[in-house]
Amino acid sequence: MSIALPTIAAVLREAAQRGLARIDAQLLLLHALGQAQRSRAWLIAHDEQPLTPAQQTAFAHLLAQRQQGVPVAYLTGRKGFFGLELSITPDVLDPRPDTETLVEWALQTLAPRTNPRVWDLGTGSGAIALAIKSQRPDAQVWASDQSASALAVARQNGQALGLQVHWLQGSWFDAAADNGQSPVQSSVQSPPLPGAGQWDVLVSNPPYIAAADPHLPALAHEPQQALVSGADGLADIRAIAQAAPEWLAPGGWLLLEHGWDQASAVAAILAQAGLRHISHRCDLAGHTRCTGGMRE
């Protein structure tokens, strides 16, 4: 007598009973079934479809890792961001939906400008730079990161999406020292890197978590160098803000993402650096997540 195989509906119920978020279980199941390109609605339409033993094993393995805190994006190797499908590895942060707030603000700032120049500092997977380029094809977009491994992921995403972003390796503005001739450059020759006083928008989601933050253990699977920034979490924001006015064109903006409780401190840092018209944007939960200032 044959043994009935569990169905899609059954394994999702079991995952819920184990405390896994429904959306996480659905994305992992699509991956285990080899249907990652499908929407979650596909699972509902096929909820009585049985899983093979191999699929059951694959799904169970994914569930176990997720319950250990591994982000879904690392398990599937994919993440949607601003309408783009990105490849994600443990070399880069898992892009958060709240970071789309930063992209939207950058696009609003760029709206009246023609052929603007944009620099994404600390690009990671390339999510911010590629999202901006996808919406503003006329923009000249550069993106830099200290990590060669992260830049390899970003460049792969740019190639897969057919979006030309110029990649630089280096820490913040030090990346300009190579003038774009980084070993992670694509075969397409980059134009000369704009110099000081020529950038319309500098945008960054830098590390902003304090070294002793109690929430860090929950982020153990993500690259710590992309998360932690000194004793108060603001060391990298200070470094970027202090150098930014030299690089910005008159009327250019520095836009930063930061922690939910850091808006006042970041605003003070930008003001001390000489930026004006300092303002904020809120994330999806209503927290003040981004702060920016303009060079007059």
From TrEMBL:
<dbReference type="GO" id="GO:0032259">
    <property type="term" value="P:methylation"/>
</dbReference>
<comment type="function">
    <text>Methylates the class 1 translation termination release factors RF1/PrfA and RF2/PrfB on the glutamine residue of the universally conserved GGQ motif.</text>
</comment>
<dbReference type="InterPro" id="IPR029063">
    <property type="entry name" value="SAM-dependent_MTases_sf"/>
</dbReference>
<dbReference type="InterPro" id="IPR040758">
    <property type="entry name" value="PrmC_N"/>
</dbReference>
<dbReference type="InterPro" id="IPR050320">
    <property type="entry name" value="N5-glutamine_MTase"/>
</dbReference>
<dbReference type="GO" id="GO:0102559">
    <property type="term" value="F:peptide chain release factor N(5)-glutamine methyltransferase activity"/>
</dbReference>
<dbReference type="InterPro" id="IPR002052">
    <property type="entry name" value="DNA_methylase_N6_adenine_CS"/>
</dbReference>
<feature type="binding site">
    <location>
        <position position="145"/>
    </location>
    <ligand>
        <name>S-adenosyl-L-methionine</name>
    </ligand>
</feature>
<keyword id="KW-0808">Transferase</keyword>
<feature type="binding site">
    <location>
        <position position="172"/>
    </location>
    <ligand>
        <name>S-adenosyl-L-methionine</name>
    </ligand>
</feature>
<dbReference type="GO" id="GO:0003676">
    <property type="term" value="F:nucleic acid binding"/>
</dbReference>
<comment type="similarity">
    <text>Belongs to the protein N5-glutamine methyltransferase family. PrmC subfamily.</text>
</comment>
<feature type="domain" description="Methyltransferase small">
    <location>
        <begin position="107"/>
        <end position="193"/>
    </location>
</feature>
<protein>
    <recommendedName>
        <fullName>Release factor glutamine methyltransferase</fullName>
        <ecNumber>2.1.1.297</ecNumber>
    </recommendedName>
</protein>
<dbReference type="Pfam" id="PF05175">
    <property type="entry name" value="MTS"/>
</dbReference>
<keyword id="KW-0949">S-adenosyl-L-methionine</keyword>
<dbReference type="InterPro" id="IPR007848">
    <property type="entry name" value="Small_mtfrase_dom"/>
</dbReference>
<feature type="domain" description="Release factor glutamine methyltransferase N-terminal">
    <location>
        <begin position="9"/>
        <end position="77"/>
    </location>
</feature>
<dbReference type="InterPro" id="IPR004556">
    <property type="entry name" value="HemK-like"/>
</dbReference>
<dbReference type="InterPro" id="IPR019874">
    <property type="entry name" value="RF_methyltr_PrmC"/>
</dbReference>
<dbReference type="Pfam" id="PF17827">
    <property type="entry name" value="PrmC_N"/>
</dbReference>
<feature type="binding site">
    <location>
        <begin position="205"/>
        <end position="208"/>
    </location>
    <ligand>
        <name>substrate</name>
    </ligand>
</feature>
<keyword id="KW-0489">Methyltransferase</keyword>
<feature type="binding site">
    <location>
        <position position="205"/>
    </location>
    <ligand>
        <name>S-adenosyl-L-methionine</name>
    </ligand>
</feature>
<feature type="binding site">
    <location>
        <begin position="122"/>
        <end position="126"/>
    </location>
    <ligand>
        <name>S-adenosyl-L-methionine</name>
    </ligand>
</feature>
